């Protein structure tokens, strides 16, 4: 059996890597041509455009790997069917489920690799692509007892400008601090400059007011945490998202959007595994042609359908219409259910 497994995996890996490289090259080449006109119009250096394309390679590999996985499986099984190798396996007493096993294990391994690449390599490279954007406008952040608003945040200098801090006690406004500038000192400590602090009673009436030139204060948030809300999902690692979620829950908040993003970090790479549940039994049960054109078309259609269902699930989850876990895993569970049903049909 080990000989058969090695044979199937070897036949699967070759078309997988070839198709993945071709799809990645075509995707980046088309994107390069689309961005080239804008870059030349704005007189940007070609170096930065090429650099950004290079930094996108890991993300594109993760996104396109499911198409390559399904295409490779279809081509291999199509070849098996064409040369009656599938029948030879069954004559030798090997059931269909056993033939599927090497494909599924390889898909599971590729899912794990995709998760690691998406978690360890993609975030820092995605941040480098947008490293030219040094400032964030209209930054807001909320903790259990504070609401922060800054007109501008300079990431390079770690400085907030035109900052307003609303502090609450027992769900009523307790203090408002306005400062022209806030400099980050260390961890969650900031130095406020040129501001005014106003104290309020339980009825919301101002009871005291004082101006200050400088004021050291613990805002309960670091510059990195402030920026998490303004980063895309691919720019955050699983650990960063999890740490941010724990902080929000500690402050008594229920971060639905971030919970969906956290589950997405795990669910998305596993498309490499679940997409096989649709392709393998479908090919063997209906004896579909081994044509490469069919394989490419079916793979593209299947992955388009997957991402369509996936996008719907994410949108419903972020609107609070689905539980975060279910919204992130909706497409995987759908493909798994369809594939399991087809496996039962094949057995019959």
What does this structure look like?
There is one protein chain. The model has no long low-confidence stretch (mean pLDDT 83). The chain has a 6-stranded antiparallel beta sheet. It has 2 domains: 2-131 and 263-347, no CATH class; 144-220, no CATH class. Helix 1 packs parallel to helix 5, helix 3 runs parallel beside helix 9 (271-286) and helix 9 runs parallel beside helix 11 (324-347). The two termini are 24 Å apart. It is of the alpha+beta class. It has helices at residues 2-41, 46-55, 57-82, 85-91, 96-129, 223-228, 238-250, 256-267, 271-286, 292-318, 324-347; strands at residues 135-142, 146-154, 159-169, 172-186, 189-200, 206-218. The protein has 11 helices and 6 strands.
- Which consecutive residue ranges, at least 5 long each, have pLDDT under 50? none
The total strand number stands at: 6
Largest sheet: 6 strands, antiparallel
Structural class by helix and strand composition = alpha+beta
Q: Overall mean pLDDT score?
A: 83
Binned, the helix content reads 55-70%
Order of helices and strands: HHHHHEEEEEEHHHHHH
Termini separation comes to: 24 Å
Radius of gyration: 27 Å
- Percentage of β-strand residues: 15-25%
Q: Strands of the largest sheet, in order across it?
A: 1-2-3-4-5-6
> Judging from the principal axes of the Cα atoms, what is the shape?
elongated
Query: How many domains?
Result: 2
Number of H/I helices: 11
């Amino acid at each position: 059996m080990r000989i058969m497994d090695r044979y199937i995996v070897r036949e699967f890996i070759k078309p997988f890597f070839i198709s993945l490289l071709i799809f990645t090259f075509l995707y980046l080449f088309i994107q390069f041509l689309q961005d080239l006109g804008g870059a030349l119009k704005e007189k940007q250096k070609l170096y930065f455009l090429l650099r950004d394309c290079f930094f996108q390679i890991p993300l594109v590999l993760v996104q396109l790997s499911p198409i390559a996985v399904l295409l490779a499986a279809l081509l291999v099984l199509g070849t098996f069917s064409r040369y009656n190798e599938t029948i030879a396996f069954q004559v030798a007493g090997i059931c269909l489920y056993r033939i599927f096993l090497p494909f599924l294990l390889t898909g599971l391994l590729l899912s794990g690799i995709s998760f690691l690449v998406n978690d360890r390599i993609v975030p820092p490279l995605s941040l480098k692509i947008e490293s030219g954007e040094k400032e964030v406008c209209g930054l807001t952040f909320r903790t259990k007892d504070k609401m922060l608003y800054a007109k501008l945040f300079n990431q390079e200098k770690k400085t907030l400008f035109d900052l307003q801090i609303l502090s609450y006690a027992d769900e009523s406004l307790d203090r408002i601090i306005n400062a022209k500038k806030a400099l980050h000192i260390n961890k969650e400590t900031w130095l406020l400059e040129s501001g005014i602090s106003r104290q309020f009673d339980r009825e919301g009436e101002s009871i005291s007011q004082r101006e200050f030139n400088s004021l050291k204060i613990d805002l309960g948030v670091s510059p990195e945490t402030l920026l998490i809300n303004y980063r895309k999902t691919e720019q955050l690692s699983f650990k960063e998202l999890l740490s941010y979620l724990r902080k929000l829950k500690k402050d008594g908040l229920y971060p639905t959007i971030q919970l969906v993003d956290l589950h997405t970090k795990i669910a998305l790479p596993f498309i490499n595994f679940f997409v096989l549940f649709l392709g393998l039994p479908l090919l063997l049960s209906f004896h579909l042609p081994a044509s490469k054109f069919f394989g490419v078309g079916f793979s593209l259609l299947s992955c388009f359908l997957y991402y369509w269902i996936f996008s719907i699930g994410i949108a419903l989850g972020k609107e609070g219409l689905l539980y975060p876990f279910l919204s992130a895993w909706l497409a995987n569970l759908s493909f798994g259910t369809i594939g399991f049903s087809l496996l039962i049909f094949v057995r019959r």
